[in-house]
Amino acid sequence: FHEPVDTAVVTDYLTVIRQPMDLTTMRGKVQQQAYTTLDEFRHDIKLICDNARIYNKPDTIYYREANRL
Hints:
Bromodomain-like_sf; Bromodomain_contain_prot; Bromodomain; Bromodomain-containing protein; Histone Acetyltransferase, Chain A; bromodomain
């Protein structure tokens, strides 16, 4: 969740996930004051979790941690 998925390693990621998001990207958006509402920030957090659940199987740590967030 912390950094963008390495698409050189996870080659099909962008085929499955159309709008990647990660906490490092979010930090940059905060620093650039790109979020104008709390809902925009929440949307990106939800996007991280949704992406993890879409791409990963339920028995993976990524899926489970997305549920915890």
